[in-house]
Amino acid sequence: MMALNRRTLLRGMAASVALPYLEAMSPARTSAAEAPKRFIALFQPNGVYPPAWDVRGSGASYEFSPILEPLRVHRGDIQIISNLGTNAKGHVAATSAVLTGTPLQVTANDPAFVPRMGISIDQLLAQKLGQSTRIASLELGTEPPRAGGENNLPISFASTVSWSGPSTKVDPEISPRAVFDRLFGAKDARQAALENKSLLDRILEDSKRLSRKVSAADKRKLDEYLTSVRDVEKRVERTLAPAPETGWKPLSKITMEPPPEGIPSKRDVHLRLMMDLLLLALQTDTTRVVTLMMAHGFSRQNFSFLEGVKGDHHSISHHKESPELTLPYTIVSRWYISQYAYLIERMKQIDEGGTSLLDRSIVLYACELRDGNGHTTRNLPIVLAGRAGGLKPGRHVALEANTPLANLHLTIAQRMGLELDKFNTSTGVLSDLA
Question: Is residue 322 part of a domain?
Fold first, then answer.
């Protein structure tokens, strides 16, 4: 059997396709300890309805709540963590604190309006892990920045959780086409689509050559992988020349115009496509650090495609304990968690030489608020999945009240291999997670 380097590419006209882990790559890996670790963060806006989120019991014998029920099948792969918080005020400051632990601040009467805070944990990890990959980190989203302000802070700052420095935000890419092109070097994607030339058509000869030289198991895995790449490419192509929006209606007062070309009009379609692109990036070791804003931190996305839901998410979150709003609010949160469950399931299915992609990852799910009704930022909704760095999932970990969220960031940094004693506002590590 031939030996392959982990960085082997299939090449063709204006395209290059990185490979997933194959048996033929084993000789190049000297020990399991050197296997790559990944960090993924999913952000959900507008908080949750606490009575529908909170689980009963702690340790391994907890009971799932209505919102978290979609994760039941992954019980052994997750940790539900209670009592982490930031004490931030409002959506914008709270969103900025999700991966920094430090609420966004500006100096009073600053004419340049320069934000000041700490680096986010994903960008810190990217500085170390990104040295080994083609893309240091991937920041994905589904909504463009919004205009307006909150508590003297621009709402546009709530479009990201990634900060490369105290005053430098990293905006997420919301175009599936742009992400696909970046991953596969498909610079002529539009022209190729018009000429009916797929990415796989352009690397066909190289893929055939490789298939003849690897084992039957690797050939099967390669075929499955290339099929999934083509599936994503087809879905991206549909955004290049979308069907006319018959009877399109604005999703809310904020979104009065149809989405621009290249952005799917359907909420669920867009998010699933970004998740599948995320998976391809991880599977091919193109990057080891990814953040996904499932929606803007002040999102008014409409969820009327879900049965029992009317109106936009932000408005529903101000429920005032009315069952007419707490029920749809819960339905939306459960839908978001089901997307997280999808990602976990797919990561468990990706083999990395006797273990799964999930086992070598830390996958964080976080909200900026506990409850959108009161904008509370203590005891935030937090879930971790994966076993990278010795994490031991399968439990509900109830920490001491008001534990700084930055303590989780510091713990993740250490588990990912960083030699760090403090991270922004941290006061210690969370030894209960491993």
Answer: yes
Q: Model's pTM, two decimal places?
A: 0.90
Taking residues 171-197, report their average pLDDT.
73
DSSP per position, 407-420: HHHHHHHHHTT---
Distance (Å, whole) CA 267 – CA 353: 35
Average of pLDDT values for 242-250? 48
For residue 365, what are its two tokens?
A: 């799910």
Q: How many degrees, rounded to 5, is the angle at CA 132 between CA 128 and CA 136?
A: 65
Residue type, 263: I
Q: What is the per-residue DSSP string for 249-310?
A: --SSSS--SPPPTTS-SSHHHHHHHHHHHHHHHHHTTS-SEEEEESS-TT---B-TTSTT--
Residues 47 and 184 in one domain: no
Gap between the Cα atoms of 353 and 308, Å rounded: 44
Closest alpha carbon to 315 in 327, 295, 330, 300? 300
User: Over 50: is that where the pLDDT of 37 sits?
Assistant: yes
Q: What is the CATH number of the domain that holds 421?
A: 3.40.720.10
Report the pLDDT value the prediction gives residue 265, as an integer from 0 to 100.
Answer: 79
| Phi, psi torsion values for 31, nearest 5 degrees | -160, 155
Cβ 156 vs Cβ 149: under 8 Å: no
Q: Are residues 186 and 157 in the same domain?
A: no
Q: What is the pLDDT of residues 55-77, one digit of tens each?
A: 999 999 999 999 999 999 999 99
pLDDT tens for each residue of 107-142: 555 555 566 678 999 999 999 999 989 999 999 999
Q: Give percent above pLDDT 90 in the chain.
A: 58
DSSP 84-145: EE----HHHHHHHHTTTSS--EE-TT-TT--EE-PPPHHHHHHHHHGGGSSSS-EEE-SSPP
What is the domain range of residue 168?
A: 35-172+263-433
For residues 72 and 153, state if they share a domain.
yes
